[in-house]
């Protein structure tokens, strides 16, 4: 009932004409040709993004729009000021699902795979992309929509420190503000508008953010069964609570190699010293087989290059940084925070995968089936339990959920170290000259 109301409303909405076009064509529409993938060395025409940020870091990538997954970033590389060449990071990065189950059990949506997420880019006004460039997104059968914003944004302090602490004489106080290359698209799915955003920081951190805004579903104000919150005056109009379970799919290409190792690090109490101070022990476990991982205090994962090393001789790696998540227990595939799977071309979506690829399993938890993990694909699951509040009207203020990947030993020192400290003398244990 709820689903049909919502779907009818969807089909009537002008913005969803694309959806009706796709739906009327049946499954064949799902196989609509996507732009040719870029070659290993470059991007197809018009699909390159490259930006040198003020602190000297350059990010490069190719982009295209998938009619289903939306914004896809490929061949992502990172080149800090003191590196002579771009350092490859990701072969591809994109959404893999937004699963939206309602608490009253009445309906559940897969907003990426069931609604042709990438077929509904919203037009961006110049003011929606301050200081940036809006690029056209082409959806088959439609006129190009100016919908991809590429811009830079300040991110606050990059660092602040005094070099006398590491042996420079006289010492200097160094400080800098940081910047991000920011890339985003807004896609509508029914009444919701989702902002798919990637921030590429000058310190090498990549932030994936999904913003939920738009409007609450007008068909879902009948949660009289205690599964919703009253939003209008008094206690009548109750918006049903629901989850947004967002999945991203990352295919790493560290230093240009598809092959890499995955490690899980854990830190746990390990007794006490004679003074009564706790000792901690950190352990590293190599994940040799496909794994469904669960976040825990003091646990993190990294993808480690098999061959690439920084100038200190340390293997280059990228850490998966997860923060808050409302893990949705009823599905097995939403029950874990991260999945590391061996690359398989037909494993594209975290759920609903068989609608597109009958040769593979349907959900990401089933992709984990004991294969050796030598070419890892990382699936990150971040859930948000949306208990609506009065402030969600209207439009809803953006709610963000996401994660980061952070460079770990990719460069021998900070990628934005000021020039006067970019010296072997300041790398490692500080050494003071005689008399200091
Ligand atoms: Cu919501």
From TrEMBL:
Signal peptide span: 1-25
Post-translational modification: Topaquinone (TPQ) is generated by copper-dependent autoxidation of a specific tyrosyl residue.
Highest taxon of source: Bacteria
Comp. bias intervals (Basic and acidic residues): 419-436
Residues of the Copper amine oxidase catalytic domain: 58-410
Keywords: Copper, Metal-binding, Oxidoreductase, Signal, TPQ
Region described as Disordered: spans on this chain: 415-436
InterPro entries in the cross-refs: Cu_amine_oxidase, Cu_amine_oxidase_C, Cu_amine_oxidase_C_sf
E.C. code: 1.4.3.-
Co-factor note (free text): Contains 1 topaquinone per subunit.
SUPFAM superfamilies, per the entry: Amine oxidase catalytic domain
UniProt cofactor(s): Cu cation
Subunit and partners: Homodimer.
Family: Belongs to the copper/topaquinone oxidase family.
The name this protein goes by in its record: Amine oxidase
Organism expressing this protein natively: Streptomyces thermolineatus
